[in-house]
Amino acid sequence: EIVLTQSPGTLSLSPGERATLSCRASQRVTSSYLVWYQQKPGQAPRFLIYSADRRAAGIPDRFSGSGSGTDFTLTISRLEPEDFAVYYCQHYDDSRYIFGQGTKLEI
Amino acid sequence: QVQLQESGPGLVKPSQTLSLTCTVSGGSISSGTYSWSWIRQPAGKGLEWIGRIFGNGAANYNASLSGRVTMSVDTSKNQFSLTLTSVTAADTAVYYCTRGDNSAWHNYWGQGTLVTVSS
Questions:
Q1: Interior CA angle at B41 toward A13 and B111, to 5°?
Q2: Cross-chain CB nearest to A97 (options B49, B110, B111)
Q3: How confident is the model at residue A94 (pLDDT cuts 50, 70, 90)?
Q4: Can you spell out the DSSP letters for B79-107?
């Protein structure tokens, strides 16, 4: 079974800085099925990126995704105060959804 | 705009059955190839997919919960449901229902409902 490992566990940055979050798969995965979500405290996750590098509707262009094979990255080019949250990657395979453990982005 | 709303008991006793319903508005549960899932999140922890169902009733479940999970769909009420049997404290979590416009992801999420397993 594929395992997704996100790093770092916690990332401490300031508004205006660039954030780089990593999601590593235990084996090669299909980029088309690599997804990112954002979750703020007390809220449901928000759909951010799909197919590794495509922004979902309404997502600001400061969010971008990249990667292939086993290594994927979510980049936030210039952090806004509302971007501080937990980010999860997810992969779909064989009719199952697998989530990474999350990266907390904090001020 | 699609909206999903979870409903059900917030407290379930150990060994009993957890039952939740997700009511969908803004779109038909039986249209297209949408997938309808349940995902849960224990307090302070990550996301765990429980299972999914399509409008035609076809379902897939997380193998780690196999034998305890059943999902169903009621197209007349535009709802889908989750049943989880023999619950323990480990099943205490916020439960989310979701819709996927593509089988690979979850575009829309309900606000979540907290279910506590305790005597």
A1: 90
A2: B49
A3: confident
A4: EEEEEE-S--GGG-EEEEEEEESSTT---
